[in-house]
Amino acid sequence: MISPTAQFGRSVLAEPKPPPTGLLSMFRKIRGVVRGGRLASFRLLRFATKTQRLMQKRIEATEEELSEILDSLRSQARRGKAASKTFRMEALAAVGAAARQTLGLKPYREQLAGASAMSLGLLAEMSTGEGKTLTVALATVLEGWRGQPCHVVTANDYLAQRDCEWLTPFYAFCGVSVSYVTGASKPEQRRASYVSDVTYLTSKELLADFLRDRLRQGRVRHPSLMTARSLLSGASVSTEPVDGIVTRGLHSVFVDEADAVLVDEAVTPLIISQKYKDEAYAECARIAGSIALALKPGEHYQPDFRRQEVKLTPAGIDVLDERSKDFPPIWRSFHRANEIVRQALTAREFFLRGRDYAVEDEKIILIDRSTGRPKPQSAWRKGLHQAIEIKEGLTPSDATETLASMSFQNFFRLFSKLAGTTGTTKRAVSEFIKTYDLPVVRIPTHEPCVRRRLPDRFFSTEEEKRTAATEEVGRIRETGRPVLVGVDSVNSSELLAKHFLEAGIPFDLLNATRLEEEAGIISRAGELGKVTIATNVAGRGTDIVLQDGVAKLGGLHVLATEPMETGRVDDQLRGRAGRQGDPGSTQCFLSLEHDLLGRFFPKVLLGSCASALAGKVPGVRLLIKGMVTYSQRRNERLARQRRQMLMQRDKWLSESLTFGAS
Asked: Which of 344, 332, 338 is nearest to 292 (CA)?
């Protein structure tokens, strides 16, 4: 019998408690640092060493004996006896032996330490190539045994399906049912998948199903009452729908690539909306687009690239007053006309094709700037999507009205247990603690990292940088070493690809327009002489394994040709080289024309730096490097502020509006 505490836990709340402030916030931070500090890492490794010795004994047992041990442990977990340190050691040793039996993989000490950290509700920082997928699975089995809804959140649909299918024999041997949900899953498939002990899926699919179920629930406000209703109706062992609800509720979640899911992708809330026809607004958007074309930056409006806002000058206001008569009567007021024209200017100034969106089949497809991946089911709000469609000469799509909305920050704080793993958390530790009460513990690499970081190189123009990058890639390729070239947008990837073609360098191109080939391209990136161009961290979750003989030549070389939006993304790209003790090297080529610098520094200063760079003035390279670091930190600070504003918005909505009676 499951205790009420284990059954409901923190997720019994309809809305998450806001993060503490003042002294309570300081206490949370201190507690989080202590729980994830060096002492915690030392204790986890010592625990893992003992677990490893016990695991070896379990590996030597027969299949029948190991199966009996796993059945006994599962039974103990179902009876609520899984909290002790002794149980955790016995369980991890047994599931580690099961991984050896079913997958042919013997978890090493660092993987056992990472799994132990996650079972304690911590975020395990493990470097690229350290086997995080198996580490997550080890911890997930222990949680799946409890019989509560358990979710594993991955970076994309492909990884959710791949990991689930690969690990199914392992989970089955441990007595845990597993399934996956993707964007293509139909409602009946989703219901069947959520019935499993463990469900693999993306954060977007999980939150969307949660919000849709909330709308179906009507008067049932508490998320965990979904679980209670399922138990009372018998839906926990059946795929029959209960009032159209597909999920079993919220209890525990393990997040792979947690920095991307909990930080980078948390900037934008997920919205459930429905379309409706509004011909008047569509006509207004077209008129606003034509007015925007007649306005000149500096003369009629001032763009603020830091905040991505546009402000009309007095001359621009005069033009708008004159043209406002073209709008339908309801849109002729200055406030409404100003709003829709500024939206058209925002679309023109701040949103670039190939970086922020792509155009496929006469439709706008959003691109995630932190990953370079497309988001085909997403759209911008408040008329921005229609403004961009008009900018591209497309027919504006129907307007939408919001039915339900929640930020990923508030959603993940609903779970009774939140844990996970990632390769780069150094720059976001305080935010994980403050927002999610999720301490970060560093797990050392299984083998020492011997990756070399070469000095950064700086260039005055983008063209100079691409020419130099082409020459460098050609030189390294001649040695037989593979090269991974990182760019920050589809446009950049295609411009660099043109240089490579002219130079006769064969390459694979991975950007947001070739998502279905992502894993295959990345998996081949370690072959002899292979050159791969990839946007940002495309291919995360797929290891780059060096072909035989590559290590002797120096391993994979990673060449970053842009400063990324945050330093963490730079770290992720560098982490592609030198995995599992392999040799490798990284280097950055940076141009003063990059828009990240243009957002935070005036053109006069950048021009002076370009002149100093051409004249080889001492210290100018150090100055530019400092400017890049400053820009990234300012960008990170602005992103944090946006996430905090979203959290406040969700809090205001929960206090001002209702989702049905409590």
From this structure: 344
Q: Give pLDDT tens digits for 260-304.
A: 888 877 777 787 877 777 777 788 888 888 888 889 988 999 988
Q: Is 524 exposed, middle or buried (0-12, 13-18, 19+ CB in 10 A)?
A: middle
pLDDT tens-digit map of 226-247: 555 555 555 444 444 456 789 9
Contact predicate 533/493, CB 8 Å: yes
Residue identified by tokens 């970081």 is 453
E strand spans, 164-238: 178-180, 198-202
Across 59-72, b (16+ Cβ under 10 Å) vs e yields beeeeeebbebbee
Cβ neighbors of 121 (< 8 A, separation 6 or more) are 417, 418, 419, 438
Token readout for 128 is 């690229």
Direct distance between the N- and C-terminal alpha carbons of the chain, in angstroms, rounded to an integer: 27
Query: Of 134, 146, 26, 130, which Cα lies nearest the Cα of 82?
Result: 146
- What is the 8-class DSSP label of residue 397? P
Which of 135, 375, 164 lies closest to 254 in space, CA to CA?
135
Q: Residue for token digits 């008569």?
A: 325
Segment 83-115, tens digit of pLDDT: 789 999 999 999 999 999 999 999 999 999 999
Which three-class secondary structure state does DSSP give residue 528?
coil
> Coil, strand, or helix at residue 292?
helix
Residue 309 has pLDDT above 90, yes or no: no
pLDDT band at 10 (very low <50, low <70, confident <90, very high): very low
For residue 245, what pLDDT is reported? 84
Q: How many CA atoms lie within 13 A of 624 on its CB side?
A: 29
DSSP letter string over 56-98? HHHHHS-HHHHHHHHHHHHHHHHTT---SHHHHHHHHHHHHHH
Q: Could you report the per-residue pLDDT of 174-222, keeping only the tens digit for each?
A: 999 999 999 889 999 999 999 999 999 999 999 999 998 888 876 444 5
CA pair distance 503, 509, nearest whole angstrom: 15
pTM of the model: 0.81
CA dihedral 141, 147, 152, 158 (to 10 degrees): 90
String of DSSP letters for 111-166: HHHHHHHHHTT-EEE--TTS-HHHHHHHHHHHHHTTTS-EEEEESSHHHHHHHHHH
* Secondary structure string (H, E, C) spanning 562-588: CCCCCHHHHHHHHCCCCHHHCCEEEEE
Tokens 């020492």 sit on residue: 448
Name the residue among 387, 382, 384 with its Cα closest to residue 402. 382
Task: Please identify which residue in the block is written with the tokens 């990673």.
Answer: 558
Winning range, highest mean pLDDT, from 166-180, 306-320, 587-601: 166-180
- The position carrying tokens 């935010």 is 431
